[in-house]
Each structure stands twice: as structure tokens, then as C-alpha cells.
Design a protein that fits this description.
Layout: E1 3-9, H1 15-29, E2 39-43, H2 51-64, E3 69-74, H3 81-98, E4 103-106, H4 116-124, E5 131-136, H5 146-154, E6 158-161, H6 168-177, E7 182-187, H7 194-209, E8 214-217, H8 225-236
Parallel strand pairs: 1-2, 1-3, 3-4, 5-6, 5-7, 7-8
Helix pairs in contact: 1-8, 2-3
Amino acid sequence: MASAYLLVAHGSQDPRQEVAMKQLAEMVRKKVPSNLVSVGTGYLELCSEPLHEQIKKFGKNTITQGCNRLKVLPLFLLPGVHVMEDIPAEVVMARQALSQDIVIDLQPYLGSHPGLGSLLEKQLAATTAEARIILAHGSRRLCSHSSVEALARNLNAVAAYWSVPPSLESQVEKLVSAGYRKIAIIPYFLFAGGITDAIALKQQELKLQFPEVSFQLTEPLGVSTELANLIWDLANEPGRYESTGEQAFG
């Protein structure tokens, strides 16, 4: 069955996300054997249409191109409420609207791919830190944090969250109290945006608060061939990855 692909992000008022999403979609499209297959982008929030309408419109368009399967790929890093509840509900509504015209498959979320750890390791290789903090957004679905904790352990780091405890500042305080003076902060976010800008400002505040400490802030994951490869894996070999919300590590 010929498949089309829809990359779904949270949505943002920051134009950098849409630019990055289009770049990433183009990288994924280059991996598709047929030039007739579409790779599109969709947004869960902050969009003029609800996600199920976006899926429905994209699905109808791909049917005219000869595709009879649509793979929806959530580009989310944590198995929070959006991944476990909101997006599946939107997919169900889209399926009901399109009936039997096209098969819609919801693929595993991006954060379930163990290869993300390797991407972060490459960023950390350029730092000289004695201690590391993986800073994720966080979720009110607290059981979703186990994937971040596992990622942090594998990278010899501690986890912190932007929206829920433990905060970046509290984790820095613990590390400073333990004697660390070179600390790397790794934003576990997909693209640059308002939150990563706020993290950079927070780093400046921490420098003033702890003048004896050297802070090194890495970039978010960003658009790369490696990230496109992970998305392609999830699109075409979903059985290899956890789809229940926990991240696997090999």
C-alpha cells in the first residue's frame, strides 16, 4: 500500500517552528521511494483548524495521489497527555470522517526512539562539563517522565523540567552543593522557540547567581539528517519501538 506521511508537532506562535517543520518534512520526503507520495505537517494546537480537520484534508489530498494509507507521526518527546490522549482522539475523528477511503495509522511518538540519546551524546561531546542536566518540558502526566529519567541515566546526567519540579535551578543548586563547577544544560526540545529562548535567559540568571560555576548550554535537537532518519524508522518499522509511552534503550 502506498503511504503518505504527516508529521505532527505541538504548534507554536513562533515562526521558527513552522520553518523547521517544513525543512524536516522535506528531508523525510527525500527518503520516500516515490516522488508522488506526500509528506506534510500538522499541528495539535495554535492552528486555524483542529488536528482532525488537518488530517482529513491531507488524507483526501493523498487519496487523489494514489495513496491508500496515511501514517501520522507525533513529533513529541514525552508520552504526555498530548501523545497518549489528545492526538489519538484526533486521529479517531479523522478516521470516522474519511471512513474506508484511506487507512490512517498512528505511529509511535518521536521520543520512543532510542536513537535520540545518540543525538544528545553528539552535542555533549563538544562540552567540557563535569555534570549534565537534561532539561525537558515536563508533563502533568507525571508517569511520562520515566523516559526522561532513563535518558538522563544513560547520559550520566540528572533530569530537570521547565513546567514541573524538579526545576533547572533546584538541580543546579544540588550540583553546586555537591562541588561541581562545570555544568552542561541540554534542552530536550525539538526546535528553537520561546521556551529555549527563556532557557537561555535563565542560564544568564544562573551565571549571576553562581558566578563560580561555568555553564554550557547546548542547542535543542533541531533539523538534521539524523533526526529525519529516526522519523523514517518510526514510520516504517514501528514494531521495533515502544508505543505505550516508555522509552526503550539498547
